[in-house]
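User: I'm putting together notes for a lab meeting next week and I want to include a structural view of one of the chains we've been expressing. I don't have a solved structure, so I'd like a prediction I can at least talk through. The sequence is below, exactly as it appears in our construct file.
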Amino acid sequence: MKKTIIIAEAGVNHNGSLAMAFKLIDYASEAGADYVKFQTFNASKLVSAVAPKAEYQAKNTATEVTGQQEMLEKLTLTQDDFRALYDYCQTRKIGFLSTGFDSDSVLFIDRLGVDYHKIPSGEITNLPYLRLIGSLGKPVILSTGMATLEEIRVALDVLYEQGITDNRLTILHCTTEYPAPFTEVNLNAIQSIRNAFGIKTGYSDHTAGIEIPVAAVALGAVMIEKHFTSDRNLPGPDHKASLEPNELAAMVRSIRNVEMSFGDGIKKPSPSEIKNIPIARRSIHLAENLPAGHVLKESDLVMKRPGNGISPMLMDKVIGKTLKTNLDKDTLLTWENLL
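Assistant: Thanks for the context. Below is the predicted structure for the 339-residue chain, given as structure tokens.
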């Protein structure tokens, strides 16, 4: 199995601080993630001045700002900041990604040199945005929170029209709520998406904890995206639904362990099991002291460990055989004992 691509989603959890963003890169690198991802946007191009905050945003930023635009302005980094973050990722041996939320931001991160363009769930019905992403020719990650299969199909058609091919696409199942209720995760949709489109499918997780993304890998997710923060108690819209550094590291370890467990699918004893076969299985033993010339019947036999003698599965072939010599109770029977 190929290695699962793990994206540590820093998002806006830097709270507008470049120093905090550097620290988030440190945490993601130390945890073993493949990429750390931020969000690049111009708040006034993303939301109108009167756009309300989402319920979770309002709850998590109740005492800070009123509107969504004002909230996002406080979470904005400059292009120079992102250049510095990109360079720092190179020194920390972790890939840099950022979701661009407007055309200028998308073009900027494209020039910066990202490996993927990420289409966030909220943009899956944004036709000009989809066309722009598709026209850039880079591999695309399409997140599908709030979407139906038909909406995914329409978005894919737009990307195809711009020249994107299936091998350059990864679709992420997602539930757009922060945190997402476990009862609404619907992990089986990963398989539904894969079956519907025949495209690499992963999972963008907004649940609390690490169990669900690990389970997604077991169900075949090839990419995992998960929000993280330096401290869940920090002010800001996304911290409460994010992992802390030690949890991010635990998630990465768990996913890597799950990857190792898949194997080749052939059911056979593993190398470490083989030595335990004679210890755990049974062989045919004698239930009583028996003389030479005795013709064995089923009541003469008992199945006990160790399993390095005649298999109990061959009992019917032993019954009716004659003992060559006197044998004691509990003797492990061998073919050499029999006529």
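A couple of points you could mention at the meeting. The mean pLDDT is 93. Residues 232 and 239 are 5 Å apart (CA to CA).

User: Perfect, that's what I needed.
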